[in-house]
Amino acid sequence: TLISELEGFPMPNTPEKVIPELTQWSRALFQTLPEFIQKQLLLERQSNAALQMSQLETERLLAWLVEDELNQRKKQGSFKGSFSPVCQFIGYQARCSVPSDFDSDYAYTLGATSAVLAASGLSGYMAVVSDLSQPVQKWRAGGVPFTAILSVAGSSAAGAFRPRPAIFPHRVDLDGAAFKSWCKEREDCAKFEMYENPGPIQLSGPSSGVVSTTIMSKFSYLRELEDLRKHMSALASRCRPGCDPRTVRVATQSLATLNSILDELAGPSEAIEQREK
Predict the structure, then answer these.
(1) How far is residue 192's CA from residue 125's CA, in Å, rounded to a whole number?
(2) What is the pLDDT of residue 69?
(3) Cβ atoms within 10 A of the Cβ of 30, count?
(4) I need a labelling partner for 208 at 20 to 30 A (CA). Which of 3, 92, 96, 265 fits?
(5) Cα-trace Rg, the chain
(6) Per residue in 170-186, pLDDT tens?
(7) Omega before 12 cis (within 30°)?
(8) Beta strand pairing call for 150-152 and 165-167
(9) 184-208 residue pLDDT tens
């Protein structure tokens, strides 16, 4: 595809250098795009080495296509009007609603946690808040080092860029409660108009504190880490010098099996599929 071919070029780049190197079909597609889209596709890569697709002015592209079509119709005599588009990017605003009380509390908590981390000299940490399905008074705030959530992907086939650390992608859990809840609604969404804007009721009343199904179905991250540390401390106290050799043997074998399982979970899914084949 055009995108996969462009990913093999060093960035930033220019259309003049890229076009001759593209395959026939990708070259034809690239040349049908307006000049500003061509240049935006060849900007400096993102931090994860991917193309900056978010920088593509799709609203301007749509206006350009409409203007081109109207110019063709004007030449044919089927259009006599004028067209003067004014574009505005409202990507995030177009797909979100007014913040609820929950959203505001969550944002304040993340900001306060970030301030505490910065004041404590803990740079390179991401503020996290757990137990969001509970009342605000029971939320648990903390920090996670970025190195714990980063992975380094393999280089591209063309080898045009060095691998860079990136946050490991989190796929949608198709067996999770949130997706199953959506499956019950998506057929009606395809047939009927179900859009609703709660308006002021999300700032007061029973709707203001409602959290999403995704959050309700998640476990307490920080509490689970605390329980894990307790189990590790208990294991360390059991496996002291002088304990029963059987205890050490069982603990060693169990931990080795656990680490093998965690290695499988940490590896890319493609590698697992290849091993299964």
Answers:
(1) 44
(2) 94
(3) 19
(4) 92
(5) 26
(6) 778 888 888 888 888 88
(7) yes
(8) antiparallel
(9) 888 888 888 776 665 555 677 777 7
